[in-house]
Design a protein that fits this description.
- The chain has a single domain, classed as Calycin beta-barrel core domain (Lipocalin, Beta Barrel), CATH 2.40.128.
- It has 5 helices and 11 strands.
Length: 291
């Protein structure tokens, strides 16, 4: 299980709010530590995260639950401070050999964005787009209900809807942050297609772009009780010369709950953002889910 720490982008909260989240009465009020029901157990009584995934009444894998991210390094307790983020948060294509196949203008834009970090919509507390919900340093909770999958995320109390009622993608969608999403099952894999993105989106802190021509295909699996696998393919001919695909694992978070967080209140950090030279840091392998 992942250590329950406030992520990097929460530094813009006031000291009063930060303090209130650390005191015992506030934690009890948020139901942190409340036991998750029906968790499979090992012989020693600890959670068996390698157990088979639960299934819905119709026999499909149940993605319901609260999901986190795999840290750049292993969880290290309070001394980690604000460093518990995923490598995909920094660069969603960090595992893609050679990087994304940029169009020339997009390569120049990424270089420009890497210098002008203050241009990131995230810095200005704007909504994050659908791909970024998977890489975010905030927990998300998935609900599966008839006709749709709903994803709630802590950051700005944002949500995403994926329709599974058989409808088709709109031919001329109104551009939005999350786009329009429809899903269908292929065996035990949920395949989600999304179009209708805005033209000015960032896929990550590195500034990889997503334009209004972009389409995203996600393939979601739950191979074990404690792991969600998300395969993301970006097909955006305006920004890239070919589609590209990355895979991201999401660990299950037990005995916890979403916390309301509203980034827009009293934001003053963007004026102080500047590029800093930092040494290369090789990601450390995350612990296995069974640890």
């Amino acid at each position: 299980m992942q250590t329950r720490l406030l992520p990097a982008t929460r530094i813009i909260l006031s000291a009063t709010i930060l303090f209130s989240l650390t005191i015992t009465p506030a934690l009890r009020a948020q139901w942190l530590g409340y036991p998750t029901k029906d968790v499979p157990k090992k012989a020693d009584g600890t959670p068996n995260l390698s157990a088979p995934a639960p299934r819905t009444a119709d026999g499909k894998p149940d993605f319901s639950g609260m999901w986190g991210w795999i840290n750049i390094g292993p969880p290290c307790g309070a001394q980690c401070g604000d460093t518990q983020i995923s490598r995909e948060f920094i660069n969603i294509a960090s595992t893609l050999k050679g990087g994304p196949p940029y169009q020339p203008w997009a390569a120049a834009l990424v270089k420009k964005r890497s210098i002008e970090q203050g241009s990131d919509p995230n810095v200005h507390c704007m909504p994050r787009d659908a791909p970024r919900i998977w890489t975010d340093d905030y927990y998300k909770r998935i609900f599966m209900v008839p006709g749709r999958i709903i994803i709630l995320t802590e950051r700005n109390m944002q949500y995403r809807q994926i329709f599974t009622d058989g409808r088709k993608l709109p031919a001329d969608p109104n551009p939005t942050w999350n786009g329009c999403s429809v899903g269908h099952w292929e065996g035990d894999t949920m395949v989600i297609e999304t179009n209708g993105f805005r033209d000015d989106l960032w896929l990550d802190a590195a500034g990889n772009p997503l334009t209004e021509q972009g389409k995203m295909t996600e393939k979601i699996r739950r191979p074990t009780y404690g792991t969600l696998e998300v395969e993301i393919t970006i097909n955006d001919p305006k920004a890239y010369t070919a589609p590209w695909t990355v895979k991201i694992n999401q660990p299950l978070i037990l005995d916890s709950e979403l916390i309301d967080y509203y980034c827009l209140e009293n934001e003053r950090d963007s004026a102080h953002m500047r590029k800093q030279d930092t040494p290369d840091r090789r990601p450390v392998a995350a612990p296995s889910q069974g640890d």
